[in-house]
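cache lookup: miss for this entity combination. No prior model stored, computing from scratch. Input as submitted by user K.M.:
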Amino acid sequence: MTTFGIDLGTTNSVISRLSEGRPTAIPVAGEVIVPSVVCFRDDGVVVVGREARNLELAHPDRTVRSAKRRIGQDFAYDVAGRRLRPEEVSAEVLRALKRGAEAVTGEAVREVVITVPAYFDDAQRRGTLRAGELAGLDVLRLLNEPTSASLVFDQAVASAARDPEIVLVYDLGGGTFDVSVLEVFGEVREVRATAGNTHLGGDDFDDKLLSLFLDLLRTQHGADVRDDPRAMARLRRLAEDTKIRLSTETEVAIAEEFIATAGGRPLHLQTRVTRRQLEALIRPLLESTVELARRAVSEANLGAQPLTRVCLVGGSTRIPLCREVLDDAFHVDVREDVDPDLAVGLGAAVQAGLLKGEPIERILVDVSAHSLGILAMGRHDAEEDDGRFTADTFVPIIRRNTVLPAVRSEELYTALDDQETIQVRVFQGESPQASKNTPVGTFKYDLEPVPEGSPVVFQLEYDLDGVVRVSVSQPETKNAKTVALRVADASGKPSDAADRESSAIVRKARAALARLEGERRSRLEGLLADLAATGSGERRTEIEDAILDLLLDADGDEAASSG
Amino acid sequence: MSWLFSWFRRSVEANGDASGDSRSVAQVVTALEASLQEGVQKLARLQARHGARLEEIENKVEGGFADLRSATEHAARAASAPVRWDDLLDAADALDEAERSAIAAGDQPMADGLRAVVTRVGRFLAQQGVRREGRVGVPPDPALVRVIGAVEAPAMNEGHVARVVRAAAMEGGRLLREGEVLVARRPPPPPNAEANP
């Protein structure tokens, strides 16, 4: 019998199962993300999910959302002439997920793992179990949401760590924020601390943009449309769309015609919103989440144990600034290998499979092994900030561990009035100094005459074949250029056959370092250092010969010992 | 290789004059051995260098193929990407709104013209297999539209669609995008209504 995993969320829910050893989310009525909304129609039919959400404003007295917030409490909803406990409402959501999954898979859904927030108390957990029972489910286990997410991230990360790891699970959804610190050691996962804000999420970011649009209408047209439900609905949708687009674009052109009327005249909203503007609006909210994350780390009493990585969960973590503030705060690997909307649900399916002894396959996710970015003028080291700009700042555009293929863009600004060209230099690596990273390629981009500080957009499109397409453009002009570079070239741009041979020897030597030990290893390290400090010429050939001799000796010894 | 030199040395010593200068023979052999060893070493280095160069060329060729594959896939993706109708559907919604605005302003000829343009857009979409859905005066169909609010509409049944803010769009039996509607609500009773018998 197949086992299933359910993420019973406050706003949305997901049901998933293991398919050929890998967790897969199951579409219910065509969508894998099911709104946790229940509508009790007057004809006795119970509608759950998208359709219930669509009817919510038409039948507020018959609709319940976010029952999870009340589960386990001594509380009842007065809905459609009935008194319903939160467990009974949640049971309707579970029942809809069960039926939907059965329709898609053709298998009976009976045994399940359901996820709950790590901070849920006993009453809330018992309430969730009761909801499962009412839905006709056999709940094998209630699994903490961060534990669930970490399970699925572990399936995606080829971690060779044999020591306990400390993982921070940062879960920023549409309406809630949870952060947990987990200790992971082999199969054991322990939640060491949790923190959160039950009323903070992507909806708050939408509200910030909504306020921006309302202000614009007020200043440009002297109109206040807050009492106009049609205009407000359009602006709300516009805010969400703009937020999503600004995760991959640096600027969005807004054109909402006939948004409202004032004094019998139609009003139009036309403007541009930049990612910088959005970031300025939401930064305080994101910084408040980082503070909560810091508090969780502090309460976890880690002692000498370092934080190993951060796992991103929840759709709002797609916002680039979210990752940036976490990078700045913790300086550890930030993982986004798994679809943040599905991670918790997929982890529940993995747990269900583990409980039933099903084989679990590793999830193969292609991610960028290094950050890819460009060289710019700037101040790269805050500690040594003497107010001077240097032309050695590395601006990462596609960050390390980004799922591929990926498209990301960044807006930078011209340094001079009527600057004629930009030498676009692409690097990969993690150092804030471009010169310490590996060059990928370079090309020239001619600018149209603009004043100092004018924007230039750099877009990097990185595919699974290791090709990065670098597009440079000037907003509001037709001036654009795209160049394809191969990241496999990133050992430096060889200029001739001898250089190519030389870099091949270096690569072989670096690869050999991993298997050599003792004196031979330190000698090779010394030779590589000498080579790095030596230009071309006879001395370089001598060092290369010494490296080749050492490698040949090592190969000979290995062959002798294996033979 | 050293066994070869040992054999050679033994052979020379065995066949040489017993009273002859066996020391110089040994020196010759040692020199020969060293020279041969050096030659073998140079050969091995040369082979390693050629191997490295060959590896680099292979990498380049593989990279070239990767570039080609990537460019082909990129072009194929661009060619097979589904047509996005969002802008045209949004434009049709804006024209609906413009028509309502013209009617409100009492400009019927303008409203008629705009209606004719909406009809043209609808016809074009229909030719592409896309149908706009948004009927007023009926209960909202939650499979197609989302209720985003209510407006006073005394002439309509309460809860029925009073206004379409965004038409739903279907492509065959598939929902391309969800619509948004406002439903009718009854106006509140006048303040003195309860006082009257």
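stored under new cache key. Chain B touches chain A at residues 41, 44-45, 48-49, 52-53, 55-57, 59, 62-63, 66-67, 69-71, 73-74, 94, 97-98, 101, 104-105, 140, 142-143, 145-151, 159, 163, 165-166, 175, 178, 180, 182-183 (CB under 8 Å).
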